[in-house]
Amino acid sequence: AVVSTQSTGEQIVMDLRNHLTRAAYSPQFESMKPALIAKLDARLGQLTTYIADKSFLFGDRVTYIDFMAFEFLEQLRVLSPESFKGMDAINAYLGRVASLPKIKEWLDSEECTSKVYSINSPFAPWPGMPPSS
To answer: What is the mean pLDDT of residues 8-21?
Structure first.
C-alpha cells in the first residue's frame, strides 16, 4: 500500500492506533495481543519499505503526520520492542524525529510525561507503562 497523500497517511496512522486502543482496553487483551502484533509487524514491514529513501514520511520536510506516527510508533515499541529489531529504516526515522530541536528538548526535559505516565489508563488491561530505567 502506497501512501500518496498526507490525508491517507494520517488515516493509516489513526487506523493502526485505533486497533491498539481497542485491544489495550479489551478484557481479552492477552488473547488479542499475538494477532495485533502480527498485524503491526506487517505494517512495520510496509512502512520500512516506504520510508527507506525518505527523511520523513512525505519527503524531506516534516509534517504533522510525522509527529502522529512518531508518538504511535513509540507506543508500539513499548508494546513490542522485539518488533523494532532489524527495522533500520523505522529506527532511523524515529531518531530523526526525536532529534528535531523542540522534540529533543521535550524528550530530554523533566516534564516529558512519556517517562512516567502510562499510554492508556492505568486500569486498562494493557496500560502501556514506560520502560523502567
So the answer is: 80
pLDDT tens by residue, 40-82: 888 888 888 888 888 998 889 998 889 989 998 998 899 999 9
Note the pLDDT of residue 57: 87
Q: If 0-12 CB within 10 Å is exposed, 13-18 middle and 19+ buried, where does residue 100 land?
A: middle
**Phi, psi for 79 (deg, rounded to 5):** -65, -45
Nearest to 77 by CA among 19, 42, 37, 25: 37
DSSP letter for each residue of 44-79: HHHHHHHHTT-SBTTBSS--HHHHHHHHHHHHHHHH
d(CA 116, CA 5): 35
pTM, rounded to two decimals? 0.84
- What beta strand segments (E) does the chain contain? none
Check if the beta carbon of residue 48 is closer than 8 Å to that of residue 101.
Answer: no
Instruction: Check residue 5 and give its pLDDT.
Output: 66
Q: What angle do CA 85, 87, 92 make, to 5 degrees?
A: 115
